[in-house]
Amino acid sequence: MKSLKILVVLTLLLVVSAFAFTQIDTFESGYAVGDVATDFKLKNVDGNVVSLSDFDKAKGFIVVFTCNTCPFAMANEDRILDLDKEFKAKGYPVIAINPNNPEVQPGDSFEAMQERAREKGFTFPYLFDENQEIYPQYGATKTPHVYLLQKEGESLLVRYIGAIDDSVRDEATVTKRFVADAVQALLAGKPVEPSNTKAIGCSIKA
Amino acid sequence: MAAFLALGCTDATKGQELPKPVKVHQEQGYKLPVYDYEHFKPFLKVTDTDVVRVINFWATWCKPCLAELPAFEALQANYKDKQVEVILVSLDFPDQVKERLIPFILKKQLKSKVLLLDDPHGDVWIPQVSEEWSGAIPATIILTSEEYRFYERSFEYPALEHELLSLKSNFND
Fold first, then answer.
1. Which of B122, B137, B154 sits opposite A198 (nearest CB)?
2. B136–chain A Cβ distance below 8 A for any pair
3. Regarding beta strands B84-90 and B52-58, do their DSSP bridges make them parallel or antiparallel, or are they unpaired?
4. Which strands sit side by side in the sheet containing A142-143, from one edge to the other?
5. Tens digit of pLDDT for each residue in A165-206?
6. What number is the ipTM of this complex?
7. Domains in chain B: ranges and CATH
């Protein structure tokens, strides 16, 4: 009987520690520049399910993790619209994804996303990472957080990770348009430099 | 100008002169010092071997930041006589200082030192604070003359105090 108890405790310990390690793995995983990005199937604000594989003619994607509620994300909405306007026709459309849990951040519910997309006249898909599975795979930690992907054969390669430009808060003080410059570099067949940048953002609400 | 000078001198804690701000916002009798990163940088170095500095990056619009503010306030209250300096570095929008940030500080009666870090070019300064920092807030640094620990996470009081004590356990010596 005693040995059974010990066995049960040991098994429990094993399960718990395995779980703990999985958690750490999930937390620390995420893409680096050069990695292959995963496709997804996420619900768009228009009710349709969107995958990157739906875009036959795209050369790549400007994937932006963003939301309705973060003031830094909101400060970038017009810039995200501008990126879509500038690069969709050139083969790099914007794909916006809201990674937040609406139970923690009610303003980021699917209905609120639909409203925000309507208000701002989003010209790009605004997808809901409803199960919060995609942002950890990408390694997004905040909004806004950009992943620039380039198609290479069947794969999508990560070419740039970071900020939209060098002044997240205030468009007036932008001196470098990181994402725009990165897409231009890809279009010109040149390496992306810098390929990693940082900006203040709101932590993703899990 | 008088406010500027007074702040530079009287806010020196435990004989340590604090870095001078680039300007000071005054509202309802409250003085909020404003720094760009260059002027803020000296906060990231502690020379006095007795001092522990706890720097928390936050903003009034950041929900998890507000949730953890009481922990930092409690740490300040419990350890202010033990050479622990808590500094709340606000990343609020500069145009919301008067209507939002200062009224919030007054309403919550924050006792920790608050300053505004107003520097738009995060890509330059975020990696200087820590290479580990993605830029998400809340984020916290606990530093002594010997150690510099960076955390991109939220804290509750016990965990925060635990980190402090793991850096400096001899508060009673």
1. B122
2. yes
3. parallel
4. A142-143, A201-203, B136-137
5. 999 999 999 999 999 999 999 999 999 999 999 999 999 999
6. 0.84
7. 47-120+135-168 (3.40.30.10)
> Using CA atoms, how far apart are residues A165 and B28, in angstroms rounded to an integer?
36
The interface residues of chain B toward chain A in range 17-46, judged by CB-CB distance below 8 A, are: none
Are the CB atoms for A10 and A111 separated by under 8 Å?
no
Instruction: State pTM to two decimals.
Output: 0.86
pLDDT for B68-92, tens place per residue? 999 999 999 999 999 999 999 999 9
- Taking domain A32-203, whether its CATH number is 3.40.30.10 is answered by yes
How far is Cα B95 from Cα B117, in angstroms, rounded to an integer?
13
Whether residue A167 and residue B120 make contact (CB cut-off 8 A), yes or no, is: yes
- Of B163, B128, B134, the C-alpha closest to B149 is B163
Q: Determine the pLDDT at residue B7.
A: 43
Structure letter (DSSP) for residue A126? E
Place of tokens 């209905």: A111
